[in-house]
Amino acid sequence: MIKTVEQYIAHLKDGREVWIEGEKVEDVTTHPHLRTAVEIGAMDYAITADPRFQDLMIVKDEKGEPYHFCLKSMETRDDLMRKRKIVQTTARTCFGLPAGAKFTGIDGLNSITAVTRRMDKNLGTSYSPYVEDYRKEMMANDAAVAVAVTDVKGDRSLRPSKQKQHKDFYLHIVEETKDGIVVRGAKSHISASPTVDDIIVIPTRAMKEDDAPYAVAFAVKPNAKGLIHIMAEHEVADDANDLDSPLAAHIYTSESLLVFDDVFIPKERVFLKGEWKYAGQFAYMFANYHRASADAYKSIENEILVGAAALMAEYNGVADAPHIQDKLAWLAWYAETTDALGRASCFDCAEDKDLNVVFPDPVYSNAAKFFFAEHYHQAIKHLIDITGGIVSTIPSSKDHLSPKIGHYVDKYLAAKEGIPTEHRFRMIKLVKDICSYFLQGVTLHGEGSLAAQRMSIRVTSDWAKYASAAKRAAGIREQSPHPAYSGLLNYPTWTWRTKSNII
Amino acid sequence: MIKTVEQYIAHLKDGREVWIEGEKVEDVTTHPHLRTAVEIGAMDYAITADPRFQDLMIVKDEKGEPYHFCLKSMETRDDLMRKRKIVQTTARTCFGLPAGAKFTGIDGLNSITAVTRRMDKNLGTSYSPYVEDYRKEMMANDAAVAVAVTDVKGDRSLRPSKQKQHKDFYLHIVEETKDGIVVRGAKSHISASPTVDDIIVIPTRAMKEDDAPYAVAFAVKPNAKGLIHIMAEHEVADDANDLDSPLAAHIYTSESLLVFDDVFIPKERVFLKGEWKYAGQFAYMFANYHRASADAYKSIENEILVGAAALMAEYNGVADAPHIQDKLAWLAWYAETTDALGRASCFDCAEDKDLNVVFPDPVYSNAAKFFFAEHYHQAIKHLIDITGGIVSTIPSSKDHLSPKIGHYVDKYLAAKEGIPTEHRFRMIKLVKDICSYFLQGVTLHGEGSLAAQRMSIRVTSDWAKYASAAKRAAGIREQSPHPAYSGLLNYPTWTWRTKSNII
Amino acid sequence: MIKTVEQYIAHLKDGREVWIEGEKVEDVTTHPHLRTAVEIGAMDYAITADPRFQDLMIVKDEKGEPYHFCLKSMETRDDLMRKRKIVQTTARTCFGLPAGAKFTGIDGLNSITAVTRRMDKNLGTSYSPYVEDYRKEMMANDAAVAVAVTDVKGDRSLRPSKQKQHKDFYLHIVEETKDGIVVRGAKSHISASPTVDDIIVIPTRAMKEDDAPYAVAFAVKPNAKGLIHIMAEHEVADDANDLDSPLAAHIYTSESLLVFDDVFIPKERVFLKGEWKYAGQFAYMFANYHRASADAYKSIENEILVGAAALMAEYNGVADAPHIQDKLAWLAWYAETTDALGRASCFDCAEDKDLNVVFPDPVYSNAAKFFFAEHYHQAIKHLIDITGGIVSTIPSSKDHLSPKIGHYVDKYLAAKEGIPTEHRFRMIKLVKDICSYFLQGVTLHGEGSLAAQRMSIRVTSDWAKYASAAKRAAGIREQSPHPAYSGLLNYPTWTWRTKSNII
Amino acid sequence: MIKTVEQYIAHLKDGREVWIEGEKVEDVTTHPHLRTAVEIGAMDYAITADPRFQDLMIVKDEKGEPYHFCLKSMETRDDLMRKRKIVQTTARTCFGLPAGAKFTGIDGLNSITAVTRRMDKNLGTSYSPYVEDYRKEMMANDAAVAVAVTDVKGDRSLRPSKQKQHKDFYLHIVEETKDGIVVRGAKSHISASPTVDDIIVIPTRAMKEDDAPYAVAFAVKPNAKGLIHIMAEHEVADDANDLDSPLAAHIYTSESLLVFDDVFIPKERVFLKGEWKYAGQFAYMFANYHRASADAYKSIENEILVGAAALMAEYNGVADAPHIQDKLAWLAWYAETTDALGRASCFDCAEDKDLNVVFPDPVYSNAAKFFFAEHYHQAIKHLIDITGGIVSTIPSSKDHLSPKIGHYVDKYLAAKEGIPTEHRFRMIKLVKDICSYFLQGVTLHGEGSLAAQRMSIRVTSDWAKYASAAKRAAGIREQSPHPAYSGLLNYPTWTWRTKSNII
């Protein structure tokens, strides 16, 4: 089915336990701090309700029943390219962020699909039918879905079972019954959990044998008993103040600390239960999908960043200064390179025929994430450089709107002729939001840190190819060079001096 | 004299017109948004009242009357080194910022001292006695003093007199009487203006002849008729919440947009009045002093930044990870290089014997400012990289202190054994504040943009020395090489092949 | 036709005037300094003679006559992708460089094809039939072809006609007869001119009206009267020493200064003659094709660089050091990003239906070139960092091969067990060559400088899209937003506070 | 005594065994490949013979006997500052390199002085009298002295005694008699060993107990039996060609692989013999002195680099282009920051009163080395960017001087009016040399790699100070804060909300 906005919102009133700034939220659909999160979730349903977007967003199952394309298993390159287009469309709509109803969760769904198939094939388990049932239920409900991956981790130098202060720094099974399992622990940085219908939970890292109880994956309802959503400190003082916080007021995604205080999970929703050798694969496959998702929406976020820089240059009257033009060229390069790399990861996707899935090319998806995160601080440095010190000292919009002193602000914060001061004022506020600590943290650490991307690139790159290239150039003979370097011709007429060991 | 904290505070209640967030401030000494600014100003008086700091802070005039060292004219290297020490001591006290009562203003005072002496010498004007009288009055009152330099500028591609929307984008003289002048315009990014006793106003740039009315410098009282302080939007939602905003709650410096709505300045307080050729020198000499002041306090701000990174690494349990250690080494290098360069600018100071003043070496002071600003975004990138995504998603301290859910936060945000969660919690909040848009803007643009430093370095570097070095190395004969390259010996026994044109 | 290696070589003995290191070359096919250049040219013919490569390299014309694919006009995306594959295949064969017989010249041919069609269409000239005839002749001869673009330029701040020392810094027409034109000037950095059959000459920049005589494009034979090839100083002391100069001995491309001392060009080979408004387009279209060609071969050159770094890490025994692994990951990222961006430029090519040509997407092709050139010095820094100081101090291979002291070198330059010292020795020599000033200059300035790429990115980026993105995020209403930002939905249920001017 | 140039040269003919490019050198004073090395060594004596430099260079001992200042033990800040001035003076003379007779060796001498004093104090050994005698002999002979530190190392992941292929990758004692020891192994990158009178040998790293035989330090004569100097491949094809290789022809420092084939060392010249706990200190103290020496000469090398960039900009006619000016400002900043940091390391020197020695501040000396090495590739990138592609394609000076084609080169490589083409030609050749692989390797790895500097900065920085800074800012109470953060005042009038744990 395809739900309406109203159906989506109605479904959120289910007694889920959500806290923000020390206060328990009575109704997530009416609390001011949660309004943006609800809007972002609801946008997903608004788009599918709009005929202009339905060709992109909706597919039909074998019975002709429509469902949201994102709930489909990824089986072809075209699937990945279409999903990328959906992410970018919703991100354009939602000011740089993808709509929240089916974003991170879908990457979790595709991860559990692939890995449970592999487990069932290799171990003889039977998790994948549970996943298929779960997917069908989500299609039937047009579910909004989140994913919970990152454990709180405690001492980062210690594995889950070796933690010292307590053993709950990684989510784990504390009890098992014939009907299911009971889990304890906490997941961090969970986007949108208070405003979805379903939460998929997977391990955050590879495990060793004594970590087996920590090898657990499942799905859970947001209102499950014992599940507590503790939301991040609210970045925006006044949620309705989209003049002073234009971006922050629109993109808040309700990151939460998700506490599992002995939550029961019925066995039909359990997708990993102690098979520790597979724990890392859930995280790996999720990362493969999710980094490509991030690549998709970041290229849209970058459009806003580049546009803000270009307009600030224009509004300040410095668009023709050569060093400003150089910075703008750099910023366009930053945006377009992110876009091209992200697209390459979907276009040149990897395929696992055994499992009947495709996934984004790991080198390219990590290259894209690494590219935009590595350069993000350079980008915001350029942005502030162009905008000026006013980003730190701009008065409140209340001063601008004040009948007493508003005329001073309007007169003196004007710049280039023909540009209303209000436009410059708004753009400065946008710059301020783009350069927030919040986006810095999300850009560097969302979808994995720079170190994670470096590691992924290192382990998935074709080092044999590089080695053959260098050995050939150095004149080191190889028995079996990499295929890309096999069968190449020697220079036609010259016998090189060095007799031994030359190709 | 040396004032007390109480005297300082009492003096601020003088009817000055201050606005913040659309509201007129009745009493700057009691308004919550201004308390930190008042504290920072008052700290200057608290320090001079403390016997442990008096040797550093207080000097006596020829009559044995004590006055604040910062009010002394800079005449020797030791003066600059001592002033640097004062800035660093107050910056350590005030969480990275120098105390506000005599910081930027002093650099303005030293600028007008030097430039008016030069003008009087060259033009036969008699501004410098006014400056000396003014300095004596400040000593007598132990005045807190700010400086207003940066005009709002309008279209940055147009000079003051060429602006299109109106002619007030740069402060200028609109009327002159036998008793003084009337000025109109607005100055931007003015630190501490609502909490000082005096404001020195100087031009922000070099002028041309038709800009003559904009070539104006003077001193004004904060409560002058027609002077309106419009303060920057307040960064901290709750001024007393030093748990969630540890740095922001301590270092707010009340940047303001300072509007001059036809303010009268008596002639005894006017230090430049149309001599447009000298306008740029006020800005230049101010920059010379002020960049060195910034170098001094930034090296303290950096101590906090580096310490936060090192402690986050320790608290997270990653202090032994090689890539973390590399980043920490980089950060220590960042801090110590800033310190060494800033010190070099005072130690190797420039001297103008004609004017009886010294000032920081322009190449070194700009090199230091360029160094820390150029690398600041790399520094905060490293800091967030080490801290983790939690910088974006940490709950409020109200959650941590909640009797209902505080135990979850305490349990799950713990990390390394032996470190109280509260310490990690506080440190994450500190990181968040260090990475704010506010500090980014201040670091890049305070004391002039990167472009300003590049220009200063370019115009003050010894290019003749570099040219002689390269010509000698390339074998290009020079008639009169730079002294550093004069009289150097040739290689003792070899006659080089190239006959012509070789040294 | 498809020529043989022997036919190619025989054709080079035609009396062309070539100078190297002060000496006139009697026979380019036997001079030791030119052997590598001849080999690289000949390789093109060796490949087409090899059945394994013929499907890639050879196409047939309408009469069934085979010809080299590179001589075909680029009409579809597949054409560009296939040409990219050819460049990469020959680059793998030729140690990172593309084979010289049809590399730069082809990009020149495609430029004159497109621009003369546009001129003929717009101006009513009839240059394009000459180009078509010329192309057919090249197909019939299987010609090796070079291009000459960059003038020597004189004072870079002056346009061609404004030069002061003389008027020949840009190539220009000095005489015109009914049969043709006479040209004078010199072109710089001309790859392979002494070892090709044909040279295409186009302007290097946009012109103004008084530069009209400099607006000239044509084809010329390498042995034309008055044409003098002055080759770059030879980088390698001993051309046969591929042990000490493994890369330099293989990739020398005979860059020359090409002097036109009043050379006659018959009118059938003239493709631009004074139509100054079109001069810049030749350079622009050449750059579009050529940057994509460079992107293609640089990604292969990078494979060698990355492989050298990985093998040096292994040979030195430091492959497991975390900071080395980080650098290797960075290098793989560098190589793969260059590859992905270059491919995107061909895949997402631009099309000019009027002219029946396609060309690489300018943003992506410039983004790729900018990416690899901007980061090249970081790449070689990493490479040397991994290799060690031995890159500067390694003895000659003559020491290694010496019967007297070779055993010392072999013993003491050994490192990781199981790796022959010879392998490490060769690899260090390869590193040395990769880090040469030659490759630095080629990488930065070949196919245009970084400034050229920045300018290209700036003028070809979709700034309207960026502006719409930022305006929407800042709440600035637009009448006609960019299509990518048209028709987007608003948040479904919330009415934002700000009344005026909001979307 | 103070030797003459002739005495120095005469002394080199002592039968030392030196090899270069597979050939045994009969006489180091006449072999063309060694002439520059001899000149650089001789320059030291030429300078002391020149009255203009004697005040700087010469001191007298208690008997009034003159000796070279560099041979004096470093006991005061002024000693370090004077030595720095000597290094910079000789570096200006020798085209960026310090004169070779007493450069690296002196840093070795000061290292063994300090560490043997410490050993004698702690262990009761009696090495320091040997060192004093050795120093006196050097004073008496005005010796030229080199140091050998870096072992060839084999597999870098294995300690000396754990090497697999053989046990000689680190120099070690193979026999001990009552008269002395016999050593075997090889040292790498040894500057100037064929052209000095004495060589000091110290360990390259910290050792563990089973490495005891590798803990060995001593002095040896260059012509000792069994000592073989295998020199680096010669960078310059024609040693006399200072037109095409202006820098390379002047600064070649004869790096050698120094093989110890069972060399006997008399006990009076042995300064460490198995006391493995002290092995690392020799390397550490050497590094402290030597990084400061490097900082001194690199700031001179940078003067050449910056001058070359500025002159190329001028010669090319692009000195007024804003992006060029930005790069020049950056380069001046690069040079001056290196200088200021290096000077700070001497001015703020560390003192060990027990040992009666001073040494450069480790943080600053490493900060300087890290600064210039970290940014070197950026510097040469800017240099090539400014110079143009001509750096890769410039013809030989033989073409320029050719009576046949020289006029073409002169005409077409001209640029800005008034600048002789020869000047531009020479400057381009200088740029080429500055960007060589040789200087890249020396800059990155000479005086230790970037990793070594990071490690040094990390272990010598004042982390307790940083921690106190951050804790105070975060509101974490400390019992005993760092002295810099002790006794600081609290804000005067405000009671902060947070009760617990606040300072």
Task: Output the strand order for the largest sheet of chain A.
Answer: 2-1-10-11-7-6
Oligomer: homotetramer
Indicate the mean pLDDT of chain A.
94
- Report the strand count of chain A: 14
* Rg calculated over all Cα atoms of chain A: 25 Å
Structure description:
The structure is a homotetramer of 503-residue chains. Chain A is an alpha+beta fold. The C terminus of chain A is likely disordered. Chains A and B meet through strand 2, strand 7, strand 10, strand 11 and helix 10 of A and strand 2, strand 7, strand 10, strand 11 and helix 10 of B.
Q: In terms of topology, how is this protein built?
A:
Four copies of one chain form a homotetramer.
Chain A: H1 5-11, E1 17-20, E2 23-24, H2 35-49, H3 51-57, E3 58-60, E4 66-68, H4 77-93, H5 104-123, H6 128-141, E5 145-148, E6 172-176, E7 180-190, E8 198-201, E9 216-220, E10 227-231, H7 248-251, E11 256-266, E12 270-273, H8 279-316, H9 322-347, E13 350-352, E14 357-359, H10 362-387, H11 390-393, H12 397-401, H13 406-412, H14 421-434, H15 437-445, H16 450-460, H17 463-474
Parallel strand pairs in A: 1-10, 5-8
Antiparallel strand pairs in A: 1-2, 3-4, 6-7, 7-11, 8-9, 9-12, 10-11, 13-14
